[in-house]
Large ribosomal subunit protein bL19 (Acaryochloris marina), 120 residues
Amino acid sequence: MHAEEIIRSIEAEHFKETLPTIYVGDTVRVGVQIREGNKERTQPYEGTVIAKRHGGINETITVRRIFQGVGVERVFLIHSPRITNIKVVRRGKVRRAKLYYLRDRVGKATRVKQRFDREL
């Protein structure tokens, strides 16, 4: 076997087939599995997708939310075994591929209009 075939076979084991279609501007709830001591639990993280990068097994999404008045961004590798589930809460209507301009906005200016022509 060539190196590429070995890499593809390993990637195929971790590739998640049942993920929803995620677009930039969507509000998503990501279930992240965390370990506290010897216990594991799923912690939800909800926010707006401001960027999507790469493709295939290396696909990442950057999710931004405001927590106690401070903007928090997390980058999730969506095919990671630590991600238990991803649910689209609402669709956003945007005209950019990257929403980095939301970092400079405060309060109600960070809202994204809702899009109704795509299914959840």
